Amino acid sequence: MKKLLEILSEEMGKAFEAAGYDAALGRVTISNRPDLCEYQCNGAMAGAKQYKKAPIMIANAVAEQLADTAVFSQVTAVAPGFLNLKLSDTFLSEYVKQMSREEKFGLESPEHPKTIVIDYGGPNVAKPLHVGHLRSAVIGEAVKRMERFAGHKVIGDVHLGDWGLQMGLIITELQERKPELPYFDESFTGEYPKEAPFTLSELEEIYPTASGKSKVDEEFKAKALQATADLQQGKRGYRAIWKHIMDISIADLKKNYENLKVDFDLWYGESDSQKYIPEMVEKMKRDGYAYVSNGALVVDVAREDDKKEIPPCMILKSDGAAMYDTTDLATILQRTIDFQPDSIIYVVDKRQELHFEQVFRCARKTGQAAENTELKFLGFGTMNGKDGKPFKTREGGVMRLSSLISQITDQMYEKISGNEALGAEEAKTTAAQVALAALKYGDLSNQASKDYVFDIDKFISFEGDTGPYILYTIVRIKSILNKYREQGGEISMDALTTPSNDSEKDLYMQLAQFNSMLEAACEELAPHKVCAYIYDLANAFNRFYHETRILTEEDASKKAGWIALLALTKDILECCIDLLGFSAPEKM
RNA sequence: GCAUCCGUAGUCUAAUGGAUAGAACGGAGGCCUCCGACGCCUUUGAUGCAGGUUCGAUCCCUGUCGGAUGCACCA
Most CB contacts within 10 A, which of A139, A462, A468, A521? Predict the structure, then answer.
């Protein structure tokens, strides 16, 4: 269904036209002076120059045309030329009633659904997830759910880091520790063992050790680089080790992401694009794009109008090995072949912006991406500690994501375990549920591109603009609805009446904004807009709730109408938090 | 050095070029015989600085100061 503001703008546009002005001037927006009006139109001022008339004259003429509109209950022209509007109660409630019947609360599905690949998560195999992986997972998951809800075909790909130097480092370290393993025996032709020669926790220790060594030991680093190249060339024993690492690591990653309510459609990695690389490189050479510079094979991507110098995209290092430019390009090619996507969205740390700028340009120039495929970089900022510096453990190390989550869950448990309505078991699961909401809302309520401060006490607070506050509001509504059912009441959206006071009308207006809010949030890939919306909606509900005795109301139709209003509010809140990637308990 | 992004109340955060810059936390004060007071209502307080474009600028442009980040064989 049409967005409310669209309808209002059309109505206003007709009035402008009838008064002899351009209908486009009739754009209506939400009032920024709620004390004066609910909606406003500033078209008279915009048109003043064009028509060489005082804005107030235009505004007056337009207001006259709206004398008997069914949409507005009040239209006033105010100096210097504002048109202040109030909505008709019946029009508003009809709109909301219609919306409650629609499949997606009135959000229209796109005429041409897009195929969108979202690249997020980006964990490295053999390394546990740490706090640096949180934002990509949380933001990417929200964007995926939003676009999917909007009606697009969305494919979420975790894009594992499984092909770079870290694999060579692990192989090299393993060889030093256990040189007797068949994987390192060049003459071995039999089948390699099914069991991995290491456990998950060993693996998680091997990588940092090897990484540390490579920084001080030149020889070790050279070996690791060689091992990386050998692996990429397909050396049999190395591939077998790699497979072990992958199996162990992915099983663990899946478990961790599941705890975060994050799930991927594809578990592809850099390695999966490998088979496209040789042909891609050849074609780049053949087409004259790639040339050798300082021993490496590169493609120029600089443009004349660049203010800054954009280094060329590196296709192959001087030792012939692929690097992240290469795999990212080959991955674009792979996705083009597999899905012909209309859009590929990268949810990546914003520090990688230059890299992706290079890759996108190169992909366009050399034809890895179709011309009509848009490549979007959704860069996110750093999660900082209270000191304003990147989040660390007390000891100054990198904090594991699982520790962060258990920390916030434990604190949440302490807060809610005092609630006697909850059993011990229920308190545990509820704590985990609310903690996840606190964590995700704390992250998503900020604009993705900005750095933000991870403040655990603020996030888990039930007061203010937080996840728990949203959940609390939902739980409160559920509690009322349950009582109503216990009294034998039935909930039906048809019971919606017209608003009878300001706080109720405000709640109606908040609800009516759902479709335009979500459309904007999807368009701008901005989950924080969904957060801002549900916060406003929860506030509007709480204000209304405070003023209205619902269950004791004697007028049955009034009561049923309020119940319907509550039910719709709850449905929309729950819909939104599902898009953000968390859920509400029954009690808390 | 060059470049990019960001500077909004004490803190944190929002605002397709529109009126008196919107919230949250904190501070001050009030509201439970009543559907969950983890709530609600008052109140306090901000666009780094200097110019320009515009009828109108937090937003666009220029300069300046401050912060973050990036600048080919790591990802």
Answer: A139
